[in-house]
Specification:
It comes from Kocuria sediminis. Its cofactor is heme b. Pathway: Nitrogen metabolism. InterPro entries: Calycin, Nb(III)_bact/plant, Nitrobindin, THAP4-like_heme-bd. It catalyses: peroxynitrite = nitrate. There is one protein chain. The protein has about 200 residues and is an all-beta fold. The chain has a single domain, classed as Calycin beta-barrel core domain (Lipocalin, Beta Barrel). It contains 1 helix and 10 strands; from the N terminus they run ββββαββββββ. Strands 1-2-3-4-5-6-7-8-9-10 form a 10-stranded antiparallel beta barrel. It is globular and about 50 Å long.
């Protein structure tokens, strides 16, 4: 499946172009002694002209026949290349970026390639229940590997200490896998899914 790069895509989002759109599919979740449960997920990656992707994932539990039962959770956040921000970049707060992007074209973006031939990435995700994850990792072609650099928890949040995630494009489908460390247990399999592009 060819990857389309929108003509209005901010240059530094070109490595993420294969993620753009809405994806939907099924997977399984569980952890440790918690029983594996089937779920359906809809994931959206959108761009708005700024140098980051907006991400939202809505998850619904399924019954034994594969029919939706009830909402399970939602997560949302931002995906971007990991680089030192400059005066022309957005923030802090509501301070707007310069009209012309800091990275103006492919040559500027190519200079960000790491020693492994990919690009360092930064992902910030928020969850209901008072948890925020900061992931660092790499995007190399149609594959992203992430590991938490920090997990922030509200006073009443459930115990959750770290996680890793992997996303990959295989024969046009988006596969992902998530391992986590929670409840005092070590890093272990938590969830995975196979999603098809629907828009």
């Amino acid at each position: 499946m060819p990857i389309e790069i929108p003509s209005d895509l901010t240059p530094e989002l070109v490595p993420f172009a294969w993620l753009l759109g809405t994806w939907e599919g099924d997977g399984f979740m569980g952890y440790g002694e918690v029983e594996q449960r089937p779920f359906r997920q809809r994931v959206t990656f959108e761009q708005n002209g700024l140098p980051f992707l907006e991400y939202r994932a809505e998850t619904t539990l399924l019954d034994e026949e594969g029919q939706p039962m009830r909402p399970a959770t939602v997560e949302q956040g931002f995906w971007q290349l990991d680089r030192t921000l400059e005066d022309g970049d957005v923030g802090p707060g509501m301070l707007p970026p310069d009209l012309v992007p800091v990275l103006k074209g492919a040559e500027d973006v190519e200079r960000l390639r790491n020693g492994d031939g990919g690009f360092d990435v930064l992902v910030t995700l928020t969850h209901p229940g008072g948890i925020v994850e900061l992931y660092l990792g790499q995007i190399k072609g149609p594959r992203i590997d992430l590991a938490t650099d920090a997990v922030v928890r509200a006073r009443g949040a459930k115990e959750y200490s770290s996680s890793t995630r992997m996303y990959g494009l295989v024969h046009g489908d988006l596969f992902w896998a998530w391992d986590m460390a929670a409840f005092g247990e070590p890093l272990a399999t938590h969830a995975s899914a196979q999603l098809k592009k629907i828009g």
